Amino acid sequence: MARIAVVAGDGIGPEVVAQARKVLDAVLPGVQATEYDLGAARWHRTGEVLPDSVLTELAGHDAILLGAVGDPTVPPGVLERGLLLKLRFAFDQYVNLRPSRLWPGVAGPLGNVKPGEVDLVVVREGTEGLYAGAGGSLHRDTPAEVATEESLNTRHGVERVIRDAFARAGRRERRKVTLVHKTNVLTHAGSLWARTFDAVAAEHPDIETEYQHVDAAAMFLVTQPQRYDVVVTDNLFGDILTDIAAAVTGGIGLAASGCINPQGAYPSMFEPVHGSAPDIAGQGIADPVAAVLSAALLLEQLGHSESAARVNAAVAAELASRAPGATLRTEEVGDRLAAHAVA
Amino acid sequence: MARIAVVAGDGIGPEVVAQARKVLDAVLPGVQATEYDLGAARWHRTGEVLPDSVLTELAGHDAILLGAVGDPTVPPGVLERGLLLKLRFAFDQYVNLRPSRLWPGVAGPLGNVKPGEVDLVVVREGTEGLYAGAGGSLHRDTPAEVATEESLNTRHGVERVIRDAFARAGRRERRKVTLVHKTNVLTHAGSLWARTFDAVAAEHPDIETEYQHVDAAAMFLVTQPQRYDVVVTDNLFGDILTDIAAAVTGGIGLAASGCINPQGAYPSMFEPVHGSAPDIAGQGIADPVAAVLSAALLLEQLGHSESAARVNAAVAAELASRAPGATLRTEEVGDRLAAHAVA
Ligand SMILES: CC(C)[C@H](C(=O)O)[C@@H](O)C(=O)O
Ligand SMILES: CC(C)[C@H](C(=O)O)[C@@H](O)C(=O)O
């Protein structure tokens, strides 16, 4: 029986996670869920972000389902570094998986892209690059201040995520992998990524490959998002590109993500890309689709592909039936999705 | 009399620069232009990228007009680091100015954004950050390889570009500056940028300010580009965001840029954002609008605001009159723009 740790978090986090659990319970009866109180609220109450004891407990689960953490009242970096990134790094979640589909029924912002035409997945590296936390400053608050941030990239880290991208592409219809970097400026890291990509590509002659600079990819995601299948890229580029991909496919309200440790040595973590949205929290109007799609990624990762497919089908039906501009009720959407997934 | 160095460069560079010069000659008779042969062609012929003697000669000009350099046959980094970035750094061009307008007559990719609604300018830092060239690698081509890239940020460098952004906002109608960074992850550099921004903002109570993380800004440039007036950001974020801004306003075929040393201690450099486009070079079908708009930025920088306005008006008329899908001839567009600018 799957043991899931649930971090509902702040703002709309608990509201959308409740729907994701409803759907999980429906398609996988008997799943054991344990709630963990982490996020802005706990930090305000106790000053704690992620006690070691909790980290150890989380490690004992098969997966983590996260809603959203954060609040404007918490200084930048506290929860990001102390909780989200801490989990990604501690649990070696080196595949940050972010699929984007323009679902039928969803009106994207692009005039000449039709629903069904975009179906891409970004495999974002999750444990290296500028997220390593290697930086510092000198002479702070003086005219002589200097601040650095260092991007750390290893062959080990780059190769494993590129291999994952090729493996995913091999299981998809179009079998294409695009490497995105900035090799013309970041020549050291860029060269490592490009050489590693070429070496792995040589082992996969059946998979089409291309390379794009990050600025060009940002542009093409707007002008021709249809061209992408699997995109593999570094941590920061992936952060930016996946928000563009989400924007062109209907917004982060629909975007799911998984922070995955593919070998299962540690639990993987699944969360909607959206934040805690304090402005609409407590009103019961947050769209739970991103959280539910994240639960589908969780099911997939735990080997329940059929259940995952049923959840995706329920989401497809939900989105296709939405009247443009109609207000949605979080609970009702969750009920409909759970019912459809087992119908 | 203005002394301009012209680097036409490779591919479509010479074709579009010829039109920009036509327009410059029309609105500013007697401008002295000297051509410099730099780029992929010269590198292939002589192995030289930017000889010191040429750098010294360039320094003696009032401004540089650049077409495009590069070619797939040149290894990544050679011309970028050796020529483009070399000039930006050597001439301390710390303001990398990239305006984006959705011109009437231009069909952008966004369904619900109307021409005239987008008019923003990105003030991208041009001499620091990850472009500093501070990086290296160890154990290259072994499983132990590690590669680093370091982002270097100084109070000096950050403050001057933020001041420039506020000064520009003060001359615009909406008077708003958005700082874009990633303070929640890049906490050291992010804090320097945020504290400096707040300090400069305090001196400008008449200017509206906001902060956004780079991933959110990338998304909002797609979903609500209308919300931006002046955006100030670091070198790499600016590289990515300006390609998104170009994409949502009709593509890099229309995007101009200036690498500016505001004090005029060194020449500023003006260039279209697009590259050398070898695929369409030599056919006379490249759109020279981006090069001509770059010439308008050059005029503005040299104090010829009225001439710059006339060039912009000519571009507006040209774009408004284009029939959708019609093929354009580079020369003809240049002729029309030059004629209109002096009419
Ligand atoms: C909250 C932040 C640390 C995080 C990131 O930058 O990875 C977020 O933007 C994301 O994409 O999951
Ligand atoms: C060619 C490259 C070095 C350059 C950059 O990254 O700045 C280009 O992308 C640009 O935006 O001018």
UniProtKB/TrEMBL annotation, chains A, B:
InterPro entries: ICDH/IPMDH (IPR050501), IsoCit/isopropylmalate_DH_CS (IPR019818), IsoPropMal-DH-like_dom (IPR024084). Keywords: Manganese, Metal-binding, NAD, Oxidoreductase. Its cofactor is Mn(2+); Mg(2+). Transmembrane segments: none annotated. PROSITE patterns: IDH_IMDH. Residues 3-337 form the Isopropylmalate dehydrogenase-like domain. This is 3-isopropylmalate dehydrogenase. It comes from the Bacteria. It comes from Micromonospora arida. GO terms for molecular function: magnesium ion binding; NAD binding; oxidoreductase activity, acting on the CH-OH group of donors, NAD or NADP as acceptor. SUPFAM superfamilies: Isocitrate/Isopropylmalate dehydrogenase-like (SSF53659).
